[in-house]
Amino acid sequence: MLFANETLYDGDIEKALDVLSGLNIAPIRSQKLRSSQQRLLAQAQIRVEDYDGAIASLTNVIDFPRSDRMSALINRCFAYLRINLVLDAQRDCAAAKGAIKSAEIRGKPVSDHRKISFAMVEAEILLRSGRTGAALDTLTAAIGIAQQARTLDRHWGLSLFKAQVLTVLGREDEALSIIDRITPKVPPSEKHQILAERAAVFLRKGNIETALYNWSAASLASPKNAEEYLFKSCVSLIQAAKYERARAPCGELVQLDEDNSVFADAYAVSVLESQGVMAAAPEVLRALELRPRSELLMRMTNEIRNSASNYLKSTNLPPFLWGQNDPAD
After folding, report:
1. Is 265 in contact with 297 (CB distance < 8 Å)?
2. Higher model confidence: residue 285 or residue 192?
3. What residue spans define the domains of the chain?
4. Helix %, strand %, coil % of the chain (to 5)
5. What's the CA gap between 194 and 191, in Å, rounded?
6. What distances in angstroms separate CA 63 from CA 27, 108, 160, 254, 310, one per listed residue?
7. Helices (H), 183-260
């Protein structure tokens, strides 16, 4: 167990995951040790974005007597949010909040790190519930805790989240000020998050060129997340009616994942709007194969059909060839 713990915190997540997963079938008589093994396994699973696995492991921790239930509830709430099970997340968040209050009433100290972790998930639930002001207040209070503990630089994600909330509230300049302040504190491996948030702020300000620049830089900084940032560029250009330019990032997405119906839809739209219905026909049909019930693509298909019919009407071909007066009639 000690080896797995050291491996996890040394950053070798895959090795830690192998060791901790192997211990699932190992005989461990101590409930405390089994709880620790499941807790560490959940941490590794979250790091590799295996949220279903993490939920299962954290549920085991919560069910064990004398386990660190509060921490497990906070982490399971986070995992539920990552897979959009918001009601489950709300349930765990409420239980964690109750555990924190109960500990404080009993005079048992709750660590600053745990309070900050809870504030992050609570703020996300508030934000998703439309209570943006309450989310901002929650994050501001947590930042105050981190400042008093002199750990704010380590909790840069807290400040970045506050910048996201300020952007939602239309306070983009405040958001940019926070982003600029925390940028030097962010590890190189996480710089892409800063760049992506800068892109979101500039897009909200109406500066799509700077947004695109930052998403491109984020893609280069984190190839693992490049597809996500490429998609944001694609969608932003479509929403700005810059269809000709959108074809490049949207087309690249289709090449990266030919079976993704959302990517196929976006590329079909960019081609349709930039090159016309006839040029878009192959892309629309391919996208419809992936998602036959797409309302957008059905409308596009009708446009293509009408365009073809109008073209045929302009020729001297017999009417039944452009959809009327079937010769069988």
Report:
1. yes
2. 192
3. 1-105, 241-329
4. 80, 0, 20
5. 5
6. 18, 21, 34, 44, 67
7. 191-204, 208-221, 226-239, 243-256
Type and span of the H or E element at 189: none
Which bin fits 326, alpha (ψ -120 to 50), beta or left (φ > 0)? beta
241-329: CATH topology:
1.25.40
Give the total residue count for the chain. Answer: 329
Q: What is the mean pLDDT of residues 203-222?
A: 96
The domains spanning 1-105 and 241-329 adopt the same CATH topology:
yes
- pLDDT for the residue 22: 63
- And the tokens for 248? 């490049």
Under a CB-based contact definition with an 8 Å cutoff, are residues 262 and 276 in contact? no
* Cα–Cα distance, 173 to 6 (Å, whole number): 42
Helix (H) or strand (E) holding 186: none
Say how many C-beta atoms besides its own lie within 10 A of residue 179's C-beta: 24
What pLDDT is attached to residue 297? 64
pLDDT at 100 over 90: yes
User: Residue holding tokens 């489950």?
Assistant: 88
Report residue 36's pLDDT band, with 50, 70 and 90 as the boundaries: confident
- Domain 1-105 matching CATH 1.25.40.10: the answer reads yes
Least confident interval from 1-15, 141-155, 262-276, 315-329: 315-329
Spatial separation of the C-alpha atoms in residues 70 and 61, rounded to whole Å: 10
Three-state DSSP state, 16? helix
As separate numbers, helices (DSSP H) first and strands (DSSP E) second, the chain gives 17, 0
Please indicate, yes or no, whether the overall pTM of this predicted structure exceeds 0.90. no
pLDDT at 4: 41
For residue range 62-99, list pLDDT tens digits in order.
Answer: 887 666 889 999 999 999 999 999 999 999 999 999 99
Of residues 13, 18, 51, 43, the one with CA closest to residue 189: 13
Of the candidates 234, 226, 236, 231, which has an alpha carbon nearest to the alpha carbon of residue 201?
Answer: 236
pLDDT bin (cut points 50, 70, 90) of residue 324 is very low
